[in-house]
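[step 3/7] inverse_fold.run input=structure_tokens len=354
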């Protein structure tokens, strides 16, 4: 190492990022989780420039004139809008990293299981652009497992289901690898979308993202409720263009959501059934249970429904919103130990171009 490299590294910082479809979380060594903000940017429609990001962008979402648009540049856990994502990451990092820090040394970034080479390259390029000197990828269910206190290297089967905003990642892990896994591009945001569609089709009513989220948290359930609840929802009648209020019942909402929960549970069962050729792993999972995490895991009745359908105990996370970023942080502070389960760093990716 020459003197210049030594000075750069000693005036730099390591950083961990959970790049979620709904929220971005940032971890700094010795400080823990220092930021949790929406994955949203506000952009000048004519000029294309980014006006604000994160919580400030969400605060003005759906309350702005036609000259400003708000977008979520991350879809299904990967980059959908490269330039907006780069600005979003850079500006959020600036909120938590002191200006006296010269650069970023190492970055650990969580990614969904189903990430493609093209999507990996886009994340790699964005990380390099915001200043990362070394980049490491970790699959989100592995990070979640570590955040839950599990050891991914032990010769014992662990099943983790991470239901985020854009993806549902299902993984059976053992001995530092994934024996069976899948990234289902259906999660919390799709539930919101189905709720929005329900109001449009049933009442000809356009509702806000906030209203859809509120309905999800208040009424959505993966199993039939004994008592049918109701609530009043406000929106705009598409036909008249005027504000309108309607009363909805939980039974109607949950009928609309049944296909999504059915797909999620069917996929979980599929990956349990693939273990028929590895019965010892299946017995481990039966003994230890299925670990359920991510914001979507908090849907009412979901844990019970999965347990009912699979016959396997469910271990719900106590802090489902932060398991992935906590795992990313543990990896970041013990990088040499966890390197065998991490993806390529960007220096290795660059070699592919030569």
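[step 3/7] decode complete -> sequence:
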């Amino acid at each position: 190492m020459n003197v210049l490299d030594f000075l750069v590294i000693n005036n730099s910082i390591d950083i961990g990022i959970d790049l979620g479809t709904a929220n971005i979380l940032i971890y700094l060594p010795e400080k823990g989780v220092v930021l949790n903000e929406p994955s949203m940017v506000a952009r000048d429609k004519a000029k294309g420039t980014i006006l604000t990001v994160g919580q400030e962008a969400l605060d003005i979402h759906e309350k702005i004139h036609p000259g400003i648009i708000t977008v979520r540049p991350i879809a299904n856990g990967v980059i959908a809008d490269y330039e907006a994502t780069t600005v979003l990451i850079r500006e959020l990092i600036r909120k938590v990293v002191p200006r006296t820090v010269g650069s970023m040394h190492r970055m650990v970034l969580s990614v969904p299981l189903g990430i493609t080479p093209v999507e990996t390259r886009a994340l790699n390029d964005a990380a390099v652009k915001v200043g990362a000197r070394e980049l490491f990828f970790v699959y989100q269910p592995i990070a979640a497992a570590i955040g839950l206190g599990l050891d991914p290297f032990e010769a014992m089967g662990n099943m983790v289901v991470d239901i985020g905003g854009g993806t549902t990642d299902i993984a059976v892990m053992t001995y530092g690898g994934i024996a069976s896994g899948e990234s289902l591009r259906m999660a919390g945001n799709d539930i919101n979308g189905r709720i929005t569609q329900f109001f449009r089709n049933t009442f000809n009513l356009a509702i806000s993202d906030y209203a859809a989220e509120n309905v999800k948290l208040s009424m959505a359930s993966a199993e039939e409720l004994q008592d049918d609840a109701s609530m009043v929802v406000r929106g705009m009648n598409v036909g008249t263009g005027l504000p309108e209020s309607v009363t909805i019942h939980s039974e109607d909402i949950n009928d609309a959501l049944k296909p999504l929960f059915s797909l999620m549970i069917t996929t979980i069962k599929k990956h349990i059934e693939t273990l028929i050729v590895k019965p010892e792993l299946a017995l481990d999972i039966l003994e230890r249970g299925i670990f359920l995490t991510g914001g979507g895991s908090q849907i009412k009745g979901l844990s019970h429904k999965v347990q009912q359908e699979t016959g396997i105990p469910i271990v719900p996370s106590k802090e489902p919103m932060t398991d992935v970023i906590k795992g990313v942080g543990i990896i970041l502070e013990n990088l040499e130990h966890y390197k065998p389960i991490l993806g390529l760093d960007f220096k290795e990716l660059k070699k592919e171009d030569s």
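[step 4/7] annotate
The CA atoms of residues 43 and 69 lie 5 Å apart.
DSSP finds 13 helices and 18 strands in the chain.
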